[in-house]
Amino acid sequence: MEDMSERPRSAAILAVIVFVEAVALLGVAIWSVVTVIGTEARELTAGLFWAACLAGVAFFLVQAGRGVLDGRSWSRAAVVVWQVLQIGVAFGTYNGAEGPVPLALAMFVPALAALVLVFRKPVRDWLARERLERLADEADG
């Protein structure tokens, strides 16, 4: 087994993409709170709930990014699921010629890049090292 003590650059780039997505979601959460202040109570409650959901997803993405940096195997699935969901939202955002194309592209491009990176061999090996080390320890013991 090759030495995987040093994080591949593609894993670091993947983590940066995930962190940027988390910051963007947190920004949308804050924007949601700001825009809903001063509305009627029903809209306020819904807006605050929406902002809390977005903040929760941002927290999830920060943890997934940290997992990628640390080489945790669970983070691969978390990143893949989020990127697939984000691509779905990007396609839903772009609804023909009238859709906000820049917003759809801003969601689609990083998600596609993250999916490409997460399936590259160096990243796969980096994220599988924890499991491989555990298997090697079990074989030795």
UniProtKB/TrEMBL annotation:
<keyword id="KW-0812">Transmembrane</keyword>
<feature type="transmembrane region" description="Helical">
    <location>
        <begin position="74"/>
        <end position="94"/>
    </location>
</feature>
<feature type="transmembrane region" description="Helical">
    <location>
        <begin position="100"/>
        <end position="119"/>
    </location>
</feature>
<protein>
    <recommendedName>
        <fullName>Integral membrane protein</fullName>
    </recommendedName>
</protein>
<keyword id="KW-0472">Membrane</keyword>
<feature type="transmembrane region" description="Helical">
    <location>
        <begin position="44"/>
        <end position="62"/>
    </location>
</feature>
<feature type="transmembrane region" description="Helical">
    <location>
        <begin position="12"/>
        <end position="38"/>
    </location>
</feature>
<keyword id="KW-1133">Transmembrane helix</keyword>
